[in-house]
Design a protein that fits this description.
tonb box; about 10% helix; transmembrane beta strand; mainly beta
Length: about 675
């Protein structure tokens, strides 16, 4: 089946990149049609999900503000097809697994530039606060934006984090917003955001935040003989974040921004609860800095260039008092640098046909104080040629990605260099006269290199690891209907994913050490469905609701393997979520529900590895106190895990029970 699909893909590539003769006869009849403005004003994100050739889910603006969430990871729980790996507590490390492909197959983009981590390929999404976030989006396959970088094509799935951009009324020169959160786990979380208008074309923004919490909470534990209630210790966190940016927009001809990001934290690593042991002394320090910029220039109506660049430095320090070396307690430090440059050309050949050529170069280097560390360096060169056809009832996009990876090390042997070509094909079609119903689908082939930890880390690395390849096929539909003051949208997708030599990371006795191995072959079949609606019940009552369901069968297909035909670790067959938000005058009520079905903690689907389903209910109420007429004081109360369910996302890492948060916000 895959061979047949490849042949179809090659044939369509030829049509798309050499299409002038084929489409010349349709140029007069297939003219661009302006989108109805009412859709964009009603819900821009939902309109994108309706017309996008790849499944897209977004939360933005007031939706993010009303969710019971502190970080980006918390917000992503409400998307279908995602498993959130949460190791417990407010300071717990949080990563995401999309469609059972593994965290390393998901690229995370911060204002259009990827957040890299050559060390382990994962991004701790718990570090990124929602306080400065305008929109969070998940694209399965890839985003269809033609001005995206080559890196955006180099992931099987992508998460886009769009931070807030200053917007002013004609007579405004600055905006100041202050807030504070407090509640369970000893949380103290003040924040400050400042927008300043330099002139009509240039503005600046500063966002800063502090998080301090002891992280202690009670949980239930059973060793099969007796049950006990214990307190989760060494789960504290102390962190602060600073973001500063300058934005320029010169009559939409020159658009640019420069952003500096700093994050510093110290946290405890509480570890797994095993053998009646409830306390772990390991500590982790993180310091992340990056400076990034992008610039777009439009030449007339047909040609544009976009330049992106970034320098990043990530430092981490790990202390383990349980391991004594000749120089004292085990203390490892890791420092990695990233240099990145991207250039994208887009050219509109015809009103309906756009070409894009993107070139990226990225260099990563890593140092450590470990004895005879390999000191790896990796240079990655990516080139993408993409073609996009956008007609009234049909959108087709194809791309071909060339990836070259070149490695060197100071000690031992480096991994082999790689050169791969990765094609993708996406479409969205309106099969009937009505624009309410549209079909979409894509085929995408991708690979990922083992990370520095996979290859070189002393306690984890496995030099026998093979690269990991994936192929995806997706077919779905979107149906939306305007019913007076109500908008209803239903989407559903079925997909099949093949992964060869899948690299799996399973946590050990603490969060910083893993066991890496090639699982062999994995095949995933799934269905994702979502129903969203929004509208008015009366003149004073607005509402929005969302219901999602995911079915995933992700099986080990390694020939001759001991776990052949069994579900891979931590992937539930059934999961879903529901949210309901209602506004009445200056009061907002919000309810959310998350469900994760049964799953297994190891490859063998046996009783000792079985994990029970879990679900949580969260509620919140927000009230605008009319103390000041123009700028009311906002007050919020959140109750998370309302019914105090005891559960674990990762085995032996218990999650908190019922918790509370109070929020106060005021904007000058």
């Amino acid at each position: 089946m895959r061979t047949y699909l490849k042949r179809i893909t090659i044939f369509i590539f030829g049509l798309l990149f050499c299409p002038t003769a084929l489409w010349a006869q349709t140029q007069d009849t297939l003219t661009p049609v302006a989108l109805p403005e009412i859709f964009l004003r009603h819900d821009k994100n939902r309109f994108e999900s309706h017309t996008s050739p790849a499944p897209v889910q977004s939360l933005s603006g007031e939706q993010l503000k009303k969710l019971n969430s502190l970080s980006v990871a918390d917000a992503l729980r409400y998307f279908s097809g995602i498993q959130l790996k949460d190791y417990g507590g407010i300071g717990g490390i949080k990563t995401v697994n999309v469609r059972s492909m593994g965290s390393q197959h998901t690229g995370v983009f911060f204002d259009g530039i990827q957040l890299g981590n050559a060390q382990n390929g994962q991004v701790d999404l718990g570090k990124f606060s929602l306080d400065n976030m305008q929109q969070v989006s998940l694209y399965q396959g890839q985003r269809s934006e033609m001005q995206q970088s080559a890196k955006a094509y180099a992931s099987s799935n992508t998460i886009y984090l769009q931070t807030k951009t200053p917007k002013f009324e004609p007579d405004e020169t600055y905006q100041l917003a202050v807030g504070v959160r407090s509640g369970s786990f000893g949380l103290f979380n003040p924040s400050l955001n400042l927008n300043y208008k330099i002139n009509d074309a240039i503005s600046a923004r500063l966002s800063t935040e502090l998080v301090n919490a002891h992280g202690r909470y009670k949980f239930q534990y059973s060793n099969g003989i007796y049950d006990t209630t214990a307190v989760r210790n060494n789960a504290d966190i102390k962190s602060y974040r600073v973001e500063a940016s300058i934005h320029g927009n010169h009559k939409n001809k020159d658009i640019w921004n420069v952003k500096y990001y700093h994050y510093n934290s110290e946290r405890g690593l509480p570890g797994a609860i095993v053998a009646n042991r409830f306390a772990r002394p390991q500590r982790l320090w993180d310091r992340n800095n990056f400076l990034q910029a992008d610039y777009k220039h439009q030449f007339g109506e047909t040609y544009a260039i976009k330049v992106r660049g970034k320098y990043g430095d990530d430092y981490s320090r790990y202390l383990d008092p349980e391991i004594v070396t000749t120089t004292g307690f085990l203390e490892n430090t890791y420092d990695q640098q990233e240099y990145y440059l991207s250039l994208v050309h887009t050219y509109k050949v015809k009103p309906y046909w756009t070409l894009s050529l993107a070139t990226d170069v990225q260099h990563n280097a890593m140092q450590s104080n470990m004895y005879r560390f390999a000191y790896p360096k990796r240079t990655t060169l990516l080139n993408v040629l993409a073609s996009d056809f956008n007609f009234k009832r049909l959108t087709i996009q194809a791309s071909l990605l060339s990836t070259g990876v070149y490695e060197s090390v100071k000690y031992y042997e480096a991994a082999d260099d790689f050169q791969e070509f990765s094609p993708s094909l996406l479409f969205n079609v309106q099969p009937f006269k009505s624009a309410d119903f549209r079909l979409r689908g894509f085929y995408k082939k991708m690979f990922r290199m083992p990370t520095f930890n996979d290859l070189y880390y002393t306690f984890v690395g496995n030099t026998f690891l093979d690269p990991e390849y994936s192929e995806q096929i997706n077919l779905g539909f979107s149906w939306q209907k305007n019913l007076g003051s109500t908008l209803l949208n239903v989407t559903s997708d079925i997909y099949n994913i093949w992964i060869t030599d899948k690299i799996v990371a399973i946590p050990g006795t603490n969060l910083f050490r893993w066991t890496m191995y090639n699982l062999g072959e994995v095949e995933t079949k799934g269905i994702e469905t979502s129903v969203t609606t929004s509208g008015k019940i009366s003149a004073d009552i607005n509402y929005s609701a969302r219901l999602t369901y995911t079915f995933q069968e992700s099986l080990d297909k390694t020939p001759g393997g001991n776990s052949f035909g069994q579900q891979i670790p931590y992937v539930p067959k059934h999961s879903g979520s529901a949210t309901l938000m209602m506004d009445y005058k200056n009061i907002a009520l919000n309810y959310s529900f998350i469900y994760t079905g049964e799953r297994y903690s190891q490859k063998a689907n046996i009783a000792s590895n079985y994990l029970q389903p879990w679900y949580t209910h969260d509620i919140s109420v927000n009230y605008e106190l009319p103390i000041f007429e123009e700028n009311p004081l906002e007050f919020g109360l959140e109750v998370n895990n309302l019914f105090d369910q005891h559960y674990a996302v990762i085995k032996n890492f218990p999650m908190p029970g019922r918790s509370f948060r109070l929020n106060l916000n005021y904007q000058f």
